[in-house]
């Protein structure tokens, strides 16, 4: 089974499932497409578990499949995963069944088959994005994700301005895509000039670029990824999208798809253009810090809960980008783990908010109050998602947030001091929202969650708690991949200024072992 | 041999009974998990399970303590590495426990007083439909607080630190259908988070400096670090301590926290959690001993707070808020002890423990009074209650005598030692501490008189309704009696300097210095000042008629004290207001400028806006077209370059 194309199968199963689901008779509210979608998502999850079990953390890029695709361009159908890619693959497959189950009735008044079909397609394409080891392939699937995303927002969204929001999302992404395209073409030009044209990431990374070319190419990729992630000032598609899409769609877009931006920064910007990345670091760090504070402040005063959750992500993507660009092991491992944790905690918030909105018919916070009295389980799960989002120790997002802040502090204490304001601002936006929604005298009757709804969220809460106390298995997968990135950007961690502590600690450990 | 701090012996690997630290934490944690996940299924017996886990945890803690007593002073530190929490690069954070004389005392205080308060709550919360949930939160708190004091590294402390913050949030807001309770819980959490900024930065700086966050490793490295670095770490830790321990300038949340059920105020906001800052500084003695500026800052904060809280306590008519002001002030005393360094650490912890006894006693007593008075908290509606709630009165009186420092009672020994040490270090600080003792005597006597003596003022003149006070059930008076006994006899810990020697392996040995005047004379002066405070209260409150509504023609100072010395006003003006204004400004900026540039509705009209309008006619078709166009562009571009 060593040559079995595990990754191709993993990516194709949801795509095939998408086709199948979309082809089922599209009666509004039909159960069959939902069951098909859930089944497909669970099979995908099982496949990913097999992939994870076959994965050896210390053996670099693996489960690779490389076939020449378009010889003239040097494009390959090349897949593979390392610790970073695998983490994001696992995030995607865990969230997919959760979203399907949580969105069960979200398209009952529309074309149900197509809705769930698009969801599976989006997830399948996202998997290919995280597995692609060829820039051209990456670009194609990256652009392809826009099609399902566009229809999910524009045709199934609940917001009044969903058509506008979908178009805004699309234009933003296309603009980013076009800029990236310039760099993709540029890569070809350079590699062709060096002999055989190639788009394989491994070969491009080994090739290296001269300073000026590298910086231009870097800029093309970075701008596209900054829009995707997003960072200030190219973020305004984010609240308008989350404010109009269904919460399930928002989870796929913000918790999974946006990770392409930060993933791309690690994989492409840092690994292909290390010199340019170091050159751009001051600017990127500044943008990241602005995003952290700006997103959090906007979230505090937002009255639309779905926009609010979207804006918190602006703040979180700032932290993830910061972790990546401080270029230390703690910062980058933390940022990678952050991508996973943000996905899980934010999904809880989006989905529970979605449950509430379905019941009350309003996504404005000011039109709610006292929900806890009627629906304690709903309120409790919402609070748990919020506590994850604000980085409470004992839940997994804390570990990654701490690592990023530590990395930022190590980079420069002023940057660390700005980054750490996030922990206060996050407490304000989460608890202020919770207070206004859930507490106070009992409001209008709200039914508490059904078994299906709790079942969808419970696994995510469990993951947050388990990884909060025992994150090391995931970090063991991420760390070696980050070590490799450190090598390619030619950076090493600063040693402690007073290394005595280490010496003594070793002695202590020896005594302990004796 | 324990004179210098950096040569502390490395803790031994915990084995036998000393390896049970995890169980002490796991018992209440399991209780919390069962009660909170089990939901209504556990309603019938939830309170019993919650109490049982706390008592069992106390049992294990007691067994460990007895075993520790049997060891030599050099062999009283046990480290237990449970598992690797997270390791990235040079950062290796273990789920590590440290059981030593300091944590041993805290474990007993937390589980002991905690168990009593669980028992009391069975009665106090008997008629609350959500009692099971209350016990789940209490268990969660106990587990987190134990993690805080048993952790072997700063990140472990932080895990417990934020855990107690969460439990405190949940319990202050337990009656969250009241807007005031919901607001108070949020305020407490957010203000604590401001302090936690200090904690996170301190831990970061420790890692950058020493490459480690464990107590042993950091202690071993301090010798090589610059004083500026250690001062920075110390000040950052102090910021964290100010948040958790309600010290100025992060004191504002504590009075509002009285919105929580009274057992919560007793356990969390008097006996245990709010003393975590004192623990943190005592635990970090190896840093503060080498960080003189930070140590001075601790003393300044402590002195300001001990007077600040005492002044507030003088003007409050709400019995719980008067006690809360008092708590703030008493923690100021403990912080003062911790700020005085090696000479003061042991006395800070001593006062922390005796305060845990007598303040828990009085808060629970206040709860019993409120129970009798239909949950009225206004002391102006009390009076002459000593006859109707005799057990509550007598036990409360023991707490009262302890806090004012009546000779022989526990608080007398602990406060006397703190004031004496303060005089040794600095006369100004000593005088402030002495003054605080006088004010304490005044406000506590005022509280005592207004509640249990003076004329009865129970009836509401408007409605004519009058409560019918009654003594609380045995399940509530039993903990009161135990705590009253501890309030009286808690001073025994000082016998033969036991607590000082007990803590020496942790905080080091202090050479004894005599105060500027003989210790006995100083004690006499303290007692005289306390007597003066009592006398003033007697003449201004006890000898006069207490009006049922608070008079409004009062001095500027009284008005200020009633308004918590304008702490909230200062915060609102300097921090909350500007932040909200900035956020709203940014919201407008984002809509009109940043998004406006894209949407073409605001200041700028860009090409994209026009494009949006065009594409929106039949957008699906246009979309397909644009994808096609993109793909074609790639091919063309590639071909062009290829040529």
TrEMBL record, chain B:
Name by which UniProt lists this protein: NADH-quinone oxidoreductase subunit L
Keyword terms, alphabetized: Membrane, Transmembrane, Transmembrane helix
Membrane-spanning parts: 12-36, 48-69, 102-122, 134-152, 197-222, 263-281, 293-311, 331-353, 388-409, 429-453, 474-499, 519-541, 623-641
A Pfam family of this chain: Proton_antipo_N
Compartments in which it is found: Endomembrane system; Membrane
Keyword Cell membrane: no
Domain NADH:quinone oxidoreductase/Mrp antiporter transmembrane residues, every copy: 151-440
Main location: membrane
PANTHER family, per database record: NADH-UBIQUINONE OXIDOREDUCTASE CHAIN 5
InterPro entries xref list: NADHpl_OxRdtase_5_subgr, ND/Mrp_TM, NU5C-like, Proton_antipo_N
Domain of life of the organism encoding this protein: Bacteria
Membrane topology according to the record: Multi-pass membrane protein
């Amino acid at each position: 089974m060593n040559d079995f194309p595990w990754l191709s199968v993993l990516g194709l199963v949801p795509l095939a499932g998408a086709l199948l689901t979309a082809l089922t008779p599209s009666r509004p509210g039909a159960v069959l497409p939902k069951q098909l979608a859930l089944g497909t998502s669970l099979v995908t999850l099982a496949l990913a578990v097999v992939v994870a079990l076959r994965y050896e953390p210390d053996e670099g890029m693996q489960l690779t499949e490389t076939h020449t695709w378009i010889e003239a361009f040097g494009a390959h159908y090349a897949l593979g995963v390392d610790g970073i890619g695998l983490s994001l693959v696992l995030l995607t497959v865990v969230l997919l069944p959760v979203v399907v189950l949580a969105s069960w009735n979200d398209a009952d008044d529309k074309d149900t088959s197509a809705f769930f079909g698009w969801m599976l397609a989006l997830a399948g394409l996202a998997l290919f994005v995280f597995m692609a080891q060829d820039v051209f392939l990456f670009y194609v699937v990256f652009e392809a994700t826009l099609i399902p995303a566009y229809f999910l927002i524009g045709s199934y969204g609940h917001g009044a301005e969903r058509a506008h929001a979908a178009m805004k999302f699309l234009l933003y992404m296309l603009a980013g895509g076009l800029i990236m395209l310039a760099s993709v073409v540029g890569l070809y030009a350079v590699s062709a000039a060096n002999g055989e044209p190639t788009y394989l990431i491994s070969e491009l990374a080994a090739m290296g670029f001269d300073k000026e070319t590298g910086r231009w190419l870097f800029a093309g990729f970075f701008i596209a990824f900054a829009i995707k992630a997003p960072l200030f000032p190219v973020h305004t598609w984010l609240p308008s999208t989350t404010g109009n899409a269904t919460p399930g769609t928002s989870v796929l877009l913000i918790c999974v798809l946006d990770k392409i931006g930060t993933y791309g920064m690690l994989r492409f910007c840092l690994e292909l253009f290390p010199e340019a990345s170091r050159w751009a670091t001051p600017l990127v760090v500044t943008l990241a810090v602005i995003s952290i504070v700006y997103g959090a402040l906007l979230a505090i005063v937002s009255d639309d809960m779905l926009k609010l959750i979207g804006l918190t992500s602006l703040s979180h993507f700032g932290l993830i980008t910061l972790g990546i660009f401080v270029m230390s092991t703690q910062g980058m491992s933390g940022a990678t783990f952050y991508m996973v944790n943000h996905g899980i905690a934010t999904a809880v918030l989006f989905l529970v908010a979605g449950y509430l909105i379905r019941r009350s018919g309003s996504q404005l916070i000011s039109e709610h109050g006292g929900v806890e009295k009627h629906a304690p389980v709903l309120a409790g799960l919402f609070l748990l998602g919020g506590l994850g989002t604000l980085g409470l120790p004992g839940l997994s997002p804390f570990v990654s947030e701490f690592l990023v802040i530590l990395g930022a502090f190590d980079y420069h204490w002023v940057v660390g001091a700005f980054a750490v304001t996030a922990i206060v601002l996050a407490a304000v936006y989460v608890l202020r929202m919770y207070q206004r929604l859930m507490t106070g005298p009992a409001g209008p009757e709200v039914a508490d969650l059904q078994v299906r709804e709790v079942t969808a969220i419970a696994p995510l809460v469990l993951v947050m708690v388990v990884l909060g106390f025992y994150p090391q298995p995931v970090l063991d997968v991420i760390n070696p991949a980050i070590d490799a990135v450190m090598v390619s950007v030619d950076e090493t961690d600063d040693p402690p200024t007073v290394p005595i502590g280490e010496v003594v600690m070793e002695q202590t450990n020896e005594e302990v072992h004796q | 041999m324990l004179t210098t701090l950096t040569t502390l012996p490395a803790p031994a690997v915990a084995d036998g009974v000393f390896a049970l630290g995890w169980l002490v934490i796991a018992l209440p944690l399991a209780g919390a998990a069962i009660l909170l996940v089990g939901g209504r299924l556990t309603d019938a017996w939830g309170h019993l399970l919650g109490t049982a886990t706390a008592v069992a945890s106390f049992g294990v803690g007691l067994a460990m303590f007895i075993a520790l007593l049997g060891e030599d002073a050099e062999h009283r530190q046990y480290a237990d590495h449970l598992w690797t929490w997270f390791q990235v690069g040079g950062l290796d954070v273990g789920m590590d426990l440290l059981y030593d004389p300091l944590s041993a005392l805290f474990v007993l205080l937390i589980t002991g007083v905690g168990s009593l308060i669980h028992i009391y709550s069975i009665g106090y919360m008997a008629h609350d439909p959500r009692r099971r949930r209350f016990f789940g939160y209490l268990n969660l708190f106990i587990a987190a607080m134990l993690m805080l004091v048993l952790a072997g590294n700063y990140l472990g402390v932080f895990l417990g630190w934020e855990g107690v913050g969460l439990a405190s949030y949940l319990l202050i807001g337990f009656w969250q259908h009241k807007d005031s309770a919901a607001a108070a819980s949020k305020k407490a959490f957010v203000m604590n988070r401001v302090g936690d900024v200090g904690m996170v930065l301190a831990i970061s700086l420790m890692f950058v400096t020493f490459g480690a966050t464990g107590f042993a490793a950091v202690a071993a490295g301090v010798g090589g670090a610059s004083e500026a670095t250690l001062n920075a770490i110390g000040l950052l830790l102090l910021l964290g301590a100010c948040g958790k321990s309600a010290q100025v300038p992060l004191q504002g949340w504590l009075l509002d926290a009285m919105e929580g059920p009274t057992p919560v105020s007793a356990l969390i906001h008097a006996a245990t959690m709010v003393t975590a800052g004192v623990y943190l500084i005592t635990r970090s003695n190896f840093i503060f001993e080498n960080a003189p500026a930070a140590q001075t800052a601790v003393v300044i904060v402590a002195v300001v707070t001990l007077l600040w809280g005492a002044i507030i306590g003088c003007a409050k008519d709400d019995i719980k808020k008067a006690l809360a002001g008092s708590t703030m002030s008493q923690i100021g005393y403990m912080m003062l002890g911790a700020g005085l360094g090696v000479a003061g650490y042991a006395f800070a912890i001593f006062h922390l423990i005796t305060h845990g006894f007598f303040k828990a006693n009085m808060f629970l007593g206040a709860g019993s009074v409120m129970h009798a008075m239909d949950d009225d908290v206004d002391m102006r509606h009390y009076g002459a209650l000593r006859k109707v709630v005799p057990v509550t009165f007598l036990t409360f009186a023991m707490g009262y005598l302890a806090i004012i420092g009546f000779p022989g009672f526990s608080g007398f020994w602990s406060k006397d030692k703190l004031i004496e040490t303060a005089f040794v270090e600095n006369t100004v600080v000593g005088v402030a501490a002495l003054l605080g003792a006088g004010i304490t005597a005044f406000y506590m006597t005022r509280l005592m008189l207004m509640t249990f003596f003076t004329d009865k003022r129970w009836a509401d003149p408007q409605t004519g309704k009058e409560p019918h006070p009654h003594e609380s059930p045995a399940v509530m008076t039993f903990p009161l009696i135990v705590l009253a006994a501890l309030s009286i006899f808690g001073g025994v810990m000082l016998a033969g300097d036991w607590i000082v020697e007990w803590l020496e392996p942790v905080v080091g040995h202090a050479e004894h210095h005599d105060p500027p005047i003989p210790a006995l004379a100083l004690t006499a002066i303290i007692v005289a000042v306390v007597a003066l405070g009592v006398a003033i209260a007697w003449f201004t409150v006890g000898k006069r008629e207490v009006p049922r509504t608070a008079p409004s023609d009062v001095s500027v100072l009284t008005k200020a004290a009633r308004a918590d010395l304008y702490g909230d006003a200062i915060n609102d003006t300097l921090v909350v207001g500007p932040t909200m204004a900035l956020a709203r400004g940014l919201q407008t900026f984002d809509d009109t400028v940043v998004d406006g540039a894209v949407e073409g509705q605001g200041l700028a009209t860009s090409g994209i806006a026009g494009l949006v309008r065009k594409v929106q006619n039949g957008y699906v078709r246009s979309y397909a077209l644009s994808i096609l166009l993109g793909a074609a562009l790639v091919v063309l571009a590639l071909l062009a370059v290829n040529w």
